[in-house]
Specification:
With about 425 residues, the protein is an alpha+beta fold. The chain is built from seven helices and 24 strands.
């Protein structure tokens, strides 16, 4: 056996061991479900002393899908090799949406990504040591920018304006066509629920202060086109857009007689039209306004200049009365000045909120105890920029790599025949 054959053999053995380990992990779920089936009760009720060591679990496909939808993506990718039926189920668009919905509703399967010179990631549930992410773009020693995160997809670009939409969980990506560079621009990235497509938006200021050009590139069309510009009464956005409820959001300034006011402007990705979003009724003025997203809800961050920061959440999108003040952090509760706070995610229990402070450090805010706890993770870079990315199976419709494709197919078939789910 030469070196190449030995390497391929070692990979197959390693893959088989990982799948076997994952199957033992999931067997507890199926055994628990089986205990509630009629057949299981019937077989053990009359003869309690008869407890077979092994039993074959025959569950409806819907029950299997419900159980699998609660598992991390890394296990699901391995389970594709259990059988052709499971592979078809896990690749099914309806199952992918089911898994995504469960992750969003339960605040699970979340990855915390740090951007410094490279991208590093850790599972939010345990916040263990960070691991380097191998992204698909060349960096030219300048690092990578994250332009947005949506449903497990990241929109990224490098210093020479190469761009890609990338799923870090499945390691699939799609490159976007080049648009050229300009001196002033912002981006946005989100999901169009009307066409079930993902769109990247670039707002450009070509010259004059009140002129803008807005261009959109969708994943399905994979080309840039110009859409309606931002109304000229608004200023140019100062940050990338925030995606929530089918729209991208920016804080813009509007001239009102001799004064200015901040407004939240949304670009609906379905209709590609603009609208204003009502703001909460603040107790006092004199704050800096920013927008963010927490879970699936749009939120507003009101910064009272080194005094405190209030975080509001819009529970029902577009309804002014649904704004709820979720928390308020005073300057003396944290280390250093309180210039900027970015909401990142809820904890799995929903009692804690993870916040980024001044692009420098992280802390949990306990909403019950109204207490702040600093976060430090091994390998966490200094002055990180943080992003939350769901672990999802969302597809980019990228064809499977042809390299060694036959070897992978043979391995899949071998594992499909070689493993039976027996409990």
């Amino acid at each position: 056996m030469n070196h190449g054959q030995w390497t391929l053999y070692s990979r197959r053995v390693s893959r088989a061991r990982k799948i076997k380990c994952s199957l033992s992990f999931i067997s507890n779920y199926f055994l628990l479900a089986a205990r509630h089936t009629k057949d299981f009760h019937h077989s053990t009720h009359h003869s309690p002393e008869l407890k077979p060591k092994k039993m074959t679990v025959n569950l409806p496909l819907d029950s299997i899908a419900d159980i699998l939808s609660r598992l991390p993506v890394k296990h699901l990718l391995r389970f594709r090799c259990v059988s052709k039926q499971w592979r078809s189920l896990i690749d099914d668009p309806d199952f992918i949406k089911l898994h995504l919905r469960h992750s969003l509703d339960s605040h699970t399967n979340q990855t915390l990504i740090f951007r410094s010179s490279d991208l590093h990631a850790a599972d939010l549930a345990c916040l263990g040591a960070f691991a380097k992410l191998e992204h698909p773009l060349m960096t030219y020693n300048h690092g990578i920018k994250i332009l947005g995160s949506c449903n497990g997809l990241l929109c990224i670009r490098n210093i020479v304006e190469d761009m890609a939409i990338w799923n870090p969980s499945t390691r699939k990506h799609q490159l976007l066509p080049s648009l050229g560079s300009c001196s002033r621009y912002v981006y946005g990235f989100g999901h169009d629920p009307v066409t079930d497509d993902y769109k990247v938006v670039k707002i450009i200021q070509p010259g004059k202060a009140l002129e803008t050009e807005v261009k959109v590139c969708s994943l399905k069309r994979n080309r840039w086109r110009r859409i309606q510009d931002i109304p000229s009464v608004f200023s140019f956005p100062r940050a990338n857009g925030v995606f929530a409820s089918g729209a991208l959001h920016w804080v813009l300034t509007r001239q009102v007689q001799l004064s200015e006011e901040n407004v939240i402007v949304a670009l609906d990705l379905g209709s590609e039209s603009y609208r204003e979003v009502p703001q909460p009724e603040h107790e006092d003025n004199g704050f800096q306004l920013n927008v963010g997203v927490l879970g699936v809800c749009l939120c507003v961050i009101a910064n009272y200049h080194d005094v405190r920061v209030d975080l509001w959440v819009m529970k029902e999108y577009g309804v002014k009365e649904s704004w709820t003040r979720l928390l308020s952090v005073a300057n003396e509760e944290i280390i250093g000045s309180l210039r900027f706070v970015k909401p990142l995610a809820y904890s799995g229990s929903g009692d804690l909120v993870l916040l980024e402070h001044d692009s420098r450090d992280l802390f949990w805010y306990d909403m019950k105890k109204k207490k702040v706890d600093d976060v430090w993770v091994p390998g966490m870079p200094l002055s990180p920029e943080s992003e939350i990315c769901l672990q999802s199976l969302v597809s980019l419709n990228v064809s499977r790599r042809q390299h060694n494709g036959e070897d992978f197919k043979k391995m899949d078939d071998f594992l499909s025949e070689g493993f039976k789910l027996v409990l």
